[in-house]
Amino acid sequence: MQPDSDAPIRRRSTYRPPSSTTPADERPAAPVTDPAPAPADVPTDLPLGTDPTRARHRAERRGNRRATSGLARQVGALTGIASMLGVCVLGAVGAVGGDATAATRAVAISADPTPGSAGDTITAAVRSGEITQAPAITSGLSSTQTPFTGGAQVSVEGEHLDAVAAVTVGGVPAVFTAVNPAYLVFDVPATASTAQGTSAAVEFLDAAGQPVGTRAPASSRPAATVDAEASVASFQTTPTQLALTYTSDPRIDAQVNYVLAYWQNYNSGQYLVISGNDCANFTSQSLLQRGWAMDGAWSYDFATGQASAAWTSSTAMRDWLLSRPDLATPLEDAQRDQVKVGDVAQFDWDNSGDRDHTTVVTRVEHTGSGTKVWVGGHTKDADFWDVDQALSGGGSVHYFSLR
User: Fold this and answer.
1) Cβ(318)–Cβ(266) under 8 Å?
2) For residue 153, how far is the Cα from the chain centroid?
3) Reported pTM
């Protein structure tokens, strides 16, 4: 059967067929009770057969859009985005077997609705690994008390520590002895003996000179979650608050106490005494008290009283110490600020290049005008001899910083 020519053309799902196949001009008029007035914008010059009240196709501009709330649309859009992000994050977690690093793919959505602000966009909280690839400390210091004389090795654990560029202790640069992504080891620099009992901040710096923060280790951080902000927060760091306390060094205490005990009353019951030239011999005795071990070049025979040249001669001792960088580092007087108690100080009275006198540093003071050093020893029997006073008649002083 052919369709009624008066029937409207079907247009997608918005078409509503007439309630009867009876031609429109033959259908009885429906009773109207107090009808609402026609909208003012309904045209009166429509083509014949056009029903102005029928549903229109979406392409027709007028009378087809339903008013909606802008707020409702924004909420709906954000809800949909959040749902999709949740699926993405959960999928990432499953893909990496629950690894916490999956949270780095989380995306934070700003709640700020201000036009043009972050609230109009989905802001990636982690761009190019800028959070997870940054170095971070995840442990405390392996030791919080170290001798003021320096040389103690201290380590920390963390993430991406191979990106740490520098470490300072109390503002003084420290030397790395081992470093990889998971841990870092550094040598604590020496300081003045007066720093004993004080605390020094330990700071780690990245390549840009910015402080490296601390955060909880991965094992204790919460598992990845669809809460993007919580996931990102678990990777953020807090300012580093690590510090060392300087203490005395038992080895140096034993060495210096020996010098102060026998600088005037020689320990002739245990060691030979070299009349008029006992300075290197006495310094060697103190180094033995410090815990140093004798070797083929530096030795003393307690049974016979025989000693090697490096044990009794200042110049021979210098040459031996220069051959033992594991024990000593040479310093000139211009580097006096690096000298510490227990170091060896040698004098060249005529600046001929040899060494004429050997002593042990017994006191160091750092002042606004420079560093003051005092020494103790034999031949020039002294417990605290001012180095500047010793040089008042000429000559030069040279030091060995001992490990």
Assistant:
1) no
2) 18
3) 0.50
